[in-house]
Write a structure and sequence with these properties.
This protein has twelve helices and no strands. It is mostly helical and 359 residues long.
Length: 359
């Protein structure tokens, strides 16, 4: 009657809802990140829970969940005692020996050309200056350490909250999915939502389990190689390489550069370590990672780099860690919506908004 196009009104309504949702996500971004970590932790535990659930004669998953948590806690304590103590000890030793290693490496090499010795002296000078500046900043910040400690201590509660939330996700995950589907009536839109949720479930399961396997593989391989070659601080460097596998592309590069730097300063098999890192990176990028990821995370490396940098600018470390799964989920949503639109001839997102709005 008023000359308002219905399709245009639906599109505007959809855009308004999307903007409102983005604003709400920004406001609760801290809480949302905690829940996302809990979901990812639940995906890590789900294979063990499913395995235990098959052997326990119970109608609910609660006993399997409880036993899985006991096993994970035991493994974490054992790993912390056996490996964590070595990492801490080598980290203290590295911090103590690092100035002496710099001084020894700064000495001119008699067989090297003058330009190389000059460049080496300049690089060591810059490293010493950076260390001095960081030490000065640390000392000047000590008066505020009490307030910062209170903030950090308040964040430690998430170490307990995340496993608790993961417990409920594992226990009631299927019911939560069913409630989401029941929001829509039977039809193409419910089928679309069901397909998207199924694809995201497969994606997150493969991605998180693959990351853990790749991290353990890097830690084990680095540790064995460094032990055989006698590289100093081998366990510390292996732990660094394993942890940084969780950061796409930039993490392994940073770990490799740090390992090479330590090898250069300590003078221990630099060329051999460099060849090993390059060979292992090719093995992991072209054999292990494609085999473990299988499907779902099919994203071009340029887009991954963009997501890592953009995620770091938007949400810091959290954005960097979540950049790849977020991009993969956006890709899944786009492909599913495009496929549904080609079959129906209309935008399912607009129809979905029209169906779920309050009259």
């Amino acid at each position: 009657m008023l000359g308002i196009d219905r399709r245009a009104a639906r599109a505007v309504w959809t855009a308004a809802l999307v903007l409102l949702l983005m604003g709400l996500v920004y406001l609760v971004r801290r809480t949302l990140f905690v829940f996302i970590l809990a979901v990812l932790f639940a995906y890590l535990l789900s294979p063990l829970v499913d395995l235990l659930d098959r052997f326990l004669p119970t109608r609910t998953r609660t006993p399997a969940l409880a036993l899985a948590y006991v096993i994970i806690l035991g493994v974490a304590v054992l790993a912390g005692i056996q490996i964590g103590s070595l990492v801490v000890e080598q980290a203290h030793r590295f911090a103590k020996d690092f100035p002496n290693m710099l001084q020894g490496w700064q000495a001119p090499s008699p067989d090297a050309p003058p330009w190389f010795n000059n460049a080496k002296a300049d690089a060591i000078g810059k490293i010493r200056t950076a260390i001095t500046e960081r030490t000065t900043d640390l000392l000047s910040a000590l008066p505020q350490a009490g307030l910062r400690f209170i903030t950090v201590a308040s964040d430690l509660i998430y170490v307990v909250v995340i496993p608790v939330l993961a417990f409920f996700f594992l226990k009631d995950g299927r019911a939560i999915r069913r409630h989401f589907l029941e929001m829509l009536d039977e039809g193409p839109r419910r089928t679309l939502l069901d397909d998207v949720l199924a694809d995201i479930n497969v994606l997150l399961a493969h991605y998180m389990r693959s990351l853990v396997v790749l991290s353990l593989a890097a830690f084990t391989t680095y540790g064995i190689f460094f032990s055989i070659m006698g590289v100093p601080y081998g366990v510390l460097l292996a732990a660094l390489g394993g942890l940084l596998e969780f950061i796409p592309m930039l993490g392994p590069f940073t770990a490799g550069a740090s390992i090479v730097l330590v090898a250069v300063i300590s003078g221990s098999h630099v060329l051999t370590v460099l060849i090993f890192l390059l060979a292992y990176r090719m093995l992991q990028d072209y054999v292990l990672s494609p085999h473990l990821m299988e499907r779902g995370v099919e994203i071009h490396p340029l887009l991954v780099l963009f997501g890592v940098f953009a995620g770091g600018e938007v949400a810091g470390i959290a954005g960097t860690l979540l950049s790849v799964p977020v991009l993969a989920m956006v890709r899944i949503l786009y492909l599913r919506v495009r496929k549904a639109r080609l079959h129906t001839g209309s935008s399912p997102l607009v129809d979905l908004t029209a169906e779920t709005r309050v009259p």
